[in-house]
Every structure is written in structure tokens, then in C-alpha cells.
Give the backbone structure.
Amino acid sequence: MTGSGRAPGGEPAERREAGRPEPGRQAGPRRASDELGALLARVALGDEEAYAAVYDRTAGQVLGVVRAVVRDPAQSEEVVQEVLLDVWRSASRFDAELGSASAWVMTLAHRRAVDRVRSEQKAAERERRVPSSATAYDEVAEAVEARLERERVRRCLASLTELQRESVTLAYYGGYTYREVAELLGVAIGTVKTRMRDGLIRLRDCLGVDA
Amino acid sequence: MRFRRDSQAVSVHTLAGAYTMDAVSQAERARFERHLAGCDACRQEVRGLREATAALGAAAAVRPPDALRDKVLRTAAQTRQVPPALSEVPAPRARDRRRLGWRPRITVAVGGALAAVGVAVAAGVVTYGMQNRLDQAQGRDLTVAAVLTASDARMMSAPVSTGGTATVVMSHREHALVFTAAHLRSLPAAERYELWLIGPAGARPAGMITASGRGRMVGPMVLSGLSAGERIGITVEPAGGSPRPTSPPVVMLSLAGGSR
């Protein structure tokens, strides 16, 4: 398991499963992120113990998304360190009004990962990265809660149209811009933009995540 | 009836998905964030989409190397933290909002078609407001808001023959309209644009037009007490203004809208 792990991790995941059919407003995700949010509030005060707990809850996810985008293991680890340090440094800037704590962390992670690949982007590097959501899945942890989450996301991704799914996974896991996605799929730019939005909306509704 | 700005507003809004997934260029990111600052509905949407992308990220979780934990915790302990932002809203957003000088929810309520004009209008509110006493500006802002949010609000836009664009948002229910223009050709110091309400009984002066700032924004100017069948027009007049038009209009907009 991931270090000291997300001890209660399996449980919220179960709850999420149970609450899924009716998009539970106050169900699992919110509760779990409230805990993370509370931890972040303590981190903002310089609480290193709380930070260790935040690390244990988020490092695996941060590494997962960063590695999906960046690919190179050494670079991925660098970016993960930057992201997690960002979390430490700017915990005081987390605002629960603007979204859940985990969404905040994941947004930092994804953006840093994308910024890294784009700033270093040479054509050759770009080619090395295989834009496949399947590959992203292959590398995921054995952790039970991760597997449940993965199953849930996989099921919801399957409910998207093919073009929505491809647009979303190429953008999110592949770190491509919508223009690049349009090019890769041979689809009009406007179409890709709409599919990305529609796909995420459908995903959001399917996951029953709280806004 | 024309909704010239409609497609533009829609296309900005469509970017919500791509933006949430960082699938936009730096410039687009900045542009969309400016849009977000004035769009409650968009922020709400992005918030929801972010939860979805967070789940995508969580699904990709891998087991981090054990050594990473020590390294990160140790580095953190030696890293100074950023102090909290002192305003209620995050700093960049506060700056945007100040520049827009506008309550985002008002433009949102008008809907996609008018949102773009709302922003254009909002940009002008600041300019105009600075030239007036605050209370006047506030009273006018309320009228602007009433027009923009009226259920029968319509937007019309037309090119000005000498250059630029004139736009009107009007509400018959409010008996008022909001006029803005942009990119009007500069005039010699001795001349100015004058706005007219033109009805069956002739033209009545509706105010001198002052363009300023980047894009030579005009207004918003609020005209109330409209009568049925009136049109709005602009002419070029001596700088002091004229009691009645002395030159042919450079633009004319029928206030009846397309549905009549």
C-alpha cells in the first residue's frame, strides 16, 4: 500500500460506489475532500504532520497524473516534487469555495505536468509519448481504493461517445491541447472543443461528483 | 435582429472543457480566465468539471517510491510558505473584477448572447464612471443592469459607415436601452459624434459621444423613455453639439427589433 497509506481509503470508495446511482450531493467524494481540506488548513499553519498526511493521500494520484502526461520517470518525479511542494507552500491559498481539496491538488499537478511537457517540447520528445489512455491505466497501482476509483472512472468513461472519450483522454492523460487533439483525430477544432466539454459534463454527471 | 457577438460568446464558453484539462494555449488560458472573472456560471461549470478531471487523475494513481516521501517532507520543512491572500478573492481575480467594474452575475443572467456585450459594456462602465460622480454612475449602473437582465432584452449591432461598431441592448419593458460603440474613427477636435433618438416627430438629441481607452470604447450610455417606432442614430456634429442633426447619420438602428 502507499506508505502509511490512505488507511480509511477503501471505505470512502465503497461509500461512493453505494451512493453512485443517485448523484449523492453530500456523499463520499465531498466527505473525503473535506478531510483533505481540513488537513490543508492545518498545513497552511505550517503543520508538518498534517502535511505528511496530505502527502499520503495525494502523492500516488499526483504521481499518476504527472506520469501519464510527462512519461519520463525521472522528470515525472521532479514535477511531482514541485507539485507537492506547491501544496505545502500555497496551502493558504486553497479556497474550499472554489472546489474540493483534491481537485485543487490535481489541478496543480496536471497543470504543472502539462507546462513541463510544453515548455520542453521538442518534436522527438512528443513522439516518444504514446497518447493512449490504456497505457495510463496499465501503470496504475494495485492499491484497492485506486482500483475501485479506476473501475468507476472506467465505467463512466465507457458511457461517453467515442469521440468524447478520445478527446477527454488525449487531453487529460496525453496532455495535448485541443488543437493537437483535433489534428490527431482528424476532426474539426470546434468539434473537439465541444466534445471535451460535453464529455467532461457527462463524466461529471456519471461520477456524481459534487461541484 | 442580429447577434453578432453571439458566436464569439459561445465559443469562449465552449472552451470550459479544454480549459479545465489544460488543453489550451497560455494565451487562451489567460483569455478564458478573464472571461471566468466575469462569469459566475462559467466558474460554476469549471468547478464541476474539475471534480471530474480530479477523478480521472485519481484513477491513474500509482504507488510513489518510498524515497520520495522523505525527500518531499524534508524539503517542505525547509521551505517557506506563501502567506495567505489578504483579500476575499484570490488576487488575480480581484484585479480582473476591478478592471471590469462589474458584478459578474448580472452579465450571466442575460445569457450567452448578451454576455459579450455585457463585458464590453462593463469595460466602459469604469471609464464612464470615472468621469462622473459616483452616485450618478451607480444609478446609471442599475439601469444598465435592469436593461441587460430584462427578460425581453435584445441586442442589435451595426457597423458605423465611417468605421467602428455601434451596439444597442434594449428592453421595451424597461423603456430603456444601453448604447455602446467601439473603434469609432477619431474626429478632428472641432467635431464630435452625437447620438439621436429619431421618431416620427423628428430627431431628439440623446447625448454627445465620448470615446476613450483602448478600442475607443463608448459608453455605456443609458437612454430611457423610449417611444415605439423610434430609431437610434449617430451623426457627426460640431463639438458643442447640435439641437438637430446637420449631417446624414453614420449609423442607424431600428429599435423595433427583428420581430416586429
